[in-house]
Amino acid sequence: MNRKSEIELTNMCLIYDKDRILVEEKINGGDTGIVFPGGHVEPGESLHDSVIREMYEETGLKISNPRPCGFKDWIQEDGTRYMVLLYKTNKFEGKLKSSEEGKVFWVDRKNIGQLNLIWNMKELLEIFDTDTYSEFFFRIKNGHYKGELLG
Questions:
Q1: DSSP labels, 12-30
Q2: Which residues touch 91 (CB under 8 Å, ≥6 apart)?
Q3: DSSP secondary structure code for residue 48 in this structure
Q4: pTM for the whole structure
Q5: Dihedral angle sign, alpha carbons of residues 50, 52, 53, 54
Q6: Most CB contacts within 10 A, which of 26, 62, 111, 134?
């Protein structure tokens, strides 16, 4: 039995500073709303280096000490797995700069629920902020994807 599978690897990072978190207002790709910055892991690139590169490209900030804290994943219709590696850090330097991916800006953590969060960002905050969950997985039930937090 072959246990190898194709995986599309991506990352996402919660950058925080005291009571503020950095968010991105997505403006391309069909969906519009608030997410945390992230992107794809390039061929031959380490997971660690990919999140540092992506944060710089999308925010203008050079992060350090990104800590893995969980996953978001699902099986696509073609059988490949899409995996988002979740990181967080409060170590960064540089000047905040938006990119073609979207506008980046700081929000007070207490106000995050008032924003138009897309792509299950509310559930991902549970992973970023607690040790209760480590994965957000989409299962196909009755022909539809249904996400669930797993511990």
A1: EEEEEETTEEEEEEE-SSS
A2: 63, 64, 65
A3: H
A4: 0.93
A5: positive
A6: 26
